[in-house]
Amino acid sequence: MEKKIILSGIQATGTLTLGNYLGALNNWVEMQDKYDCYYMIADLHTLTIRNDPEILRKNTLNLIALYIAAGLDPEKNTIFIQSHIPAHTQLSWVLNCYTYMGELNRMTQYKDKCAKHADNINSGLFTYPVLMAADILIYNADLVPVGQDQKQHLEIARDIAERFNSIYGETFKMPEPYIGKVGAKIMGLQNPTSKMSKSAEDPMDKILLSDTKEDIIKKFKKAVTDSENKVRFDVENKPGVSNLMVIYSIIKNKTIEEVEKEFEGQGYGNFKTAVAEAVIERLEPLQKRYNELLENPKELMEICNKGTEKASKKANTLLKNVYKKVGLVINE
Ligand code: TRP
């Protein structure tokens, strides 16, 4: 049986956090044997906010290095940069003509971003979900691993696909969201009721993948808990401790019950140290590999070029089919 196709991407902004790693990258690594995976750097999406060009370029390369350092094998996965495959933007133009203003207006992320970047409400921000739909539909992706915040974008991708298919016949496959096991959402250490975000202002709220051992220990020590002093999973009443348990359980590959048992009768001091140590143990080799990869940017580009070659073929075939269906003249 043919392997199912997975596509996902991360924007090239800032330094990624432990939340991005455990919620996304780590799950991707687990999927690489079972699925035919396409993982891109969504650099075009990043243009919807203002960036320093040199920093965007650097972040993009860093992110490729991180994909690989996190364990994505370039032989097994197709790794590429979104802007290297023009077919994404070409398809996105066509799909724009099959997407209604009203639909885009309802996107909660668009509304949030308008509030946040009131001085730069550009039309790219508005049509952002259409480009994302193109990213997904152009590979006939079956599954799209996304966080909760991107689910609405996936739904609109499905709506667009369905609309197009109903006019022109079966053209796009219906993508499904793939929400990983636990850990789809890692919360902030200071603010455990909201997601650990790379844009959080308080540095103590997030573990960066580039953090030193000392930073990590300090941040976990200061993580918000509660006064019960009992390692027990209860998101509602103990969001801080529950979040630490989730982090530990993913890294140690243990169930929440096993974690509860392991720390039975122990206070938060011991528990926090154990969580910090687990995170350090996981991040140290990742950081080492990441730094090695960045010493050789040429090799990174070669990996990307291989990915681009493979992805382009698939993307161009689908694009041509779409162009034909809507009535564009194909120059064969
Ligand atoms: N919008 C996604 C985010 O910010 C990134 C993204 C772009 C993406 N295209 C995608 C994710 C396609 C999944 C599939 O997180």
Mean pLDDT comes to 95
Query: How far apart are the first and last residues' alpha carbons, in Å?
Result: 32 Å
Q: Low-confidence stretches at least 5 residues in length (pLDDT < 50)?
A: none
**Main sheet specs:** 3 strands, parallel
Which sequence of strands runs across the widest sheet? 1-2-3
Write down the overall geometry: globular
Order of helices and strands: EHEHHEHHHHEHEHHHHH
**Count of helices?**
13
List how many beta strands DSSP finds.
5
* Ligands, deduplicated: tryptophan
Beta-strand proportion: 5-15%
Structural class by sheet pairing and helices: mainly alpha
- Give helix % range: 40-55%
Backbone CA Rg: 21 Å
Task: Explain this structure.
The protein is mostly helical and 332 residues long. The protein contains 13 helices and five strands. It has helices at residues 18-31, 43-46, 53-69, 87-96, 101-105, 108-116, 123-137, 151-168, 213-221, 239-252, 256-262, 268-294, 297-326; strands at residues 5-11, 36-42, 78-81, 143-145, 176-178. It has a three-stranded parallel sheet. α3 packs across α12 (268-294) and α9 runs antiparallel to α12 (268-294). The relative contact order is 0.14. Residues 7-9, 11, 42, 45, 132, 135-136, 144, 146, 150 line the site of tryptophan.
